[in-house]
User: What shape does this take?
Amino acid sequence: MAIFMAVTAAKGQIVPGACRTQAYFHLLDGKKIALVANHTSLIGVTHLLDTFLLSGLDVKKVFTPEHGFRGDLDAGAKVPAGRDAKTGLPVISLYGKKVKPSPADLSGIDLVVFDVQDVGVRFYTYLSTLSYMMEACAENNIPLLVLDRPNPNGFYIDGPVLEPAFRSFVGLHPVPVVYGMTIGEYALMVNGEHWLRDSLHCTLTVIPCTGYSHDSLYHLPVKPSPNLVDMRSVYLYPSLAFFEGT
Assistant: This one.
């Protein structure tokens, strides 16, 4: 039986989905779990993987996006597969030889849990990792649980909508550059708009944040990737990232 950890929010405090353990731990008991995570997957100062293992949950493997499980690899650097040095669990890269889990990767898994901090910009590749994981879960009849996190750029929408002819890993879906949604809301939209291959439908549950609205200013507790070192860089990223290709 998993140990339930209650997280109490002060009035006006933003509480990410991962911290709301009382809202979802009952969904994890008795399940063989795969975790999509990186260094941003925190409950306070404790990593989500450590929280799960200390609570007696059966985590079988970890999938990791661009920049790796520790979030220390440069943009565009291929992420190697391996094992987590602390837990010994297999870590499967979704930013290297493949961007989507194979059926073998998901064999024996009852539930996939996704917890990665996004920054609300179309070409930030954590979105594509989410979309391909949704597709793989749909293909293999495995439910996906998304632990939502606030969008630090969620207070506005801006930029052109992606044209389908330019679809790539840095832009899969027809959304603006700054799309104004949390990653959980984005997952619900992908399902609702039938954007997965062949209009597949992912069995999806989103644990929302509390105390958050799109008027909220949310300061990230850790940098989401090596080059976004502070909130100023997060706010400027939607504009300045266009110069990366020049």
In short: Residues 1-11 have pLDDT under 50 and may be disordered.
